Amino acid sequence: MANVGFKPPHSGEDSADAASPFDASGALSQLPGIGPKRAALLAERGIVSVEDLLLTFPSRYLDWREIKAIHEIIADETAVLAGRLVNLNERPMRGSRWRRLLSGWLQDGQGARLRVVWFNAPPHLRQRFAAAEVRVQGKVTRAADGHLEIVHPEVYIPAQDPPLALQPSYRIGDLIGQRLVRAAIDRALAAAQELPAAMPDEFRARLQLPSLAQALRYLHQPPPEADLDALRAGATPAHRALAADELFAFELALELEREHARQRAGISFAAGSVMADRFIDRLPFKLTAAQRRAIAEIRADMQSPAQMNRLLMGDVGSGKTVVALWAAINAVDHGYQAAVMAPTELLAEQHYAAFQKLCGAPAIRCALLRGNLPAATRRGVLDFLRSGAPGVVFGTHALIQRTVEIPRLGLAVIDEQHRFGVFDRVRLQALGPRADMLLLSATPIPRSLARVLLSNLEVSTLEERPAGRPVVATIIAAEQELDTVWSKVRQEVERGNRAYCILPLIESDDRQDMAVTTAAADLRSGALAGLRIGVMHGRLPADEKDAVMREFRDGKVQVLVSTTVIEVGIDVPAATVMVIMGAARFGLAQLHQLRGRIGRGTQPGFCYLVADGAARRKLKVLVEKTAGAEIAQADLELRGPGDLFGARQAGPLPLRYAHWIRDLDTILRIRDFAREWLRSDPALSSKSSRGARKALAHLLEAGSRSALFAG
Ligand code: ADP
Ligand code: MG
Asked: Domain 472-625's class?
């Protein structure tokens, strides 16, 4: 597997010194209160070592600094109050014999009272709090009877257990108790001095950042004067210190990988191919200048004896597929096999069909390998692949199953590469260790950032849209204008076209399926009555997603109500309208991607961004600009590089903290530090590289998930 030209150390060198209290990379059971049962619970969340625990940050902070008097508070504020709990009273809840309600009053020194309520309180709560002097925190609401109350307040008895001024709260606290987590972390922090940083001190000093130990202590036990907003926003020097350390290791890995790739043997495909050029000549359209440039770059890479690692980046609809097909034919013409892997069956089918259509003559053998093939067909495809005969195979994940052998794989193409785990790329490449790799992505990353995050890949971009594409008018609409929007949708659909309605839901939201279904039902019985409306969301099984997309493509579904899962690469030329609800909640780059799904046929498209108020201003960029790269740049300026580190943008990068660095300038400096460091210590063998070696070993471990380090 992974090999970046050095060996991560295995000696005892990196474990704790004998003098230290315990080993930070060691098991959690060294910590107070964590026995085998709790350790097992935490292990399920991926928290195995003391270090893992230290890197589990609070999900929020409770501010106990300012105590208010009860008579001052108003409904809907979150307040800290002090007093005694009196008249605590437990009774069954109305309508449910099994659920019980604990309620009572918080009475402060001035005699003012506020009601406190718990549903299903554990039995000990009443005894523990009865008549004690307490601190209470929670959101104040006005009950139906007019009293102010706090439901499920946080309560501390300061005499026994004073809360920190800024009290961290952990998600895993639900699992093993907040108090216990804090105690364990407190003990673990004692070991944090010896977490070696990847970034040598001199660079850290140049960026004026605290040490890792200081940073961790700050995040877990913020000092009373800490800036709470900055803490919550991940914008403290402590956050930046962790992010910088991670990025430094990452940039080292990219530099090493780049060096390694340069030495890796590939295949040298002779300069060109008559067959591939004939394919281009016979296309029913003329290539854009950008496509020709990309082909020239790929041609040069394929000709070189080193392995190609190229990313072809271009807006949706910019025509990446024909470029990839040119490369595939080039490989085939030199006697090799080519594989094109797509994230869904529908896309794989689409490429397969495009290839057959565009290649016309049966001169080149091709096959489709997907999940549910009849046994005999499947065997036929596998035999064809195993034979090593030149040809192109299109497929999904099915291509990287164990039974597949492609002995003369010369070129591997991955479409929508950001949709695959980096692990998948490694597995595809493992089918042909010398094969050239071409990755396709419709996610624009500003050049500046690509230079840093993808510096181990060569990048070609298709900035230009093919000529003759219809324009997509982008219209910012207010909620009150929705009637007009829906009548436009109806009008387009009645002309035989198709429409998308996108809801601003997060894919991880448990209720997304319900929200989508409800929205669809509302449209069916309201504004879009009589139209055939389908739904799509991340919770649908893959085959149902495919089925819905097919129905939409074929017109059995006319309006698709969906979260953002709708297929990026899918070509539905009849889709001419898109309505994006709550548009302000999306990033500009993401809106641009969504909008790319319409205007792919011959008719003009209409994209409605529904938003109210101030948010409308930022959306103007989309009305004015149509080039993905420009919009990505605007996004970068607006929001900083943080979001672009997200898995969706750059492909699954093994970065957990990097988004805490907001400015590109720092990112570039860190890359330069990494280069500088490698010049002075190319093998990372010095004592000051100890932390870097350890961090790289970590990345390599994750490297099973990362093609960056594929050997
Ligand atoms: P994407 O880059 O999003 O993968 P595709 O490769 O699917 O885009 O191309 C979108 C459509 O544009 C396809 O139908 C394709 O045949 C067509 N196309 C590609 N290049 C050109 C061109 N130079 N001129 C006109 N149409 C083109
Ligand atoms: Mg595509």
From this structure: alpha beta
Write the residue with the smallest CA distance to atom 23 of ligand 1.
Answer: 287
Centre of ligand 2 from the C-alpha of residue 628, in Å: 15
Spatial separation of the C-alpha atoms in residues 560 and 597, rounded to whole Å: 12
CATH 3.40.50.300: does it fit domain 274-462? yes
Which pTM does this prediction carry?
0.70
- Give me ligand 2 centre to Cα 704, in Å: 27
Share of the chain above pLDDT 90, in %: 41
Identify the nearest ligand to the CA of 316 by its number.
1
- For 493-522, write each residue's pLDDT tens digit: 999 999 999 998 766 667 778 889 999 999
Pairing mode, strands 133-142 and 148-151:
antiparallel
pLDDT of amino acid 502: 94
Query: Closest Cα to atom 22, ligand 1: which residue?
Result: 466
Query: In sequence order, which residues have a C-beta less than 8 Å from that of residue 491 and are 6 or more positions away?
Result: none
Q: Which residues line ligand 1 (CB under 6 A)?
A: 285-288, 291, 314, 316-322, 442, 466, 569, 571
Distance 287 CA to ligand 1 centre (A): 9
| Domain residue spans of the chain | 66-164, 274-462, 472-625
Same fold for the pair 66-164 and 274-462: no
Which pLDDT belongs to residue 443? 74
Give 567 Cα–ligand 1 centroid separation in angstroms.
16
Under-50 pLDDT residues of the chain: 1-20, 646-651, 703-711
Atom of ligand 1 nearest to the CA of 287: 23
Q: Tell me which fold the domain 66-164 belongs to.
A: OB fold (Dihydrolipoamide Acetyltransferase, E2P) (2.40.50)
Nearest to 221 by CA among 189, 176, 173, 180: 189
What angle do the packed helices 274-281 and 320-333 form, to 10 degrees?
150
Q: What residue owns the CA closest to ligand 1's atom 9?
A: 319
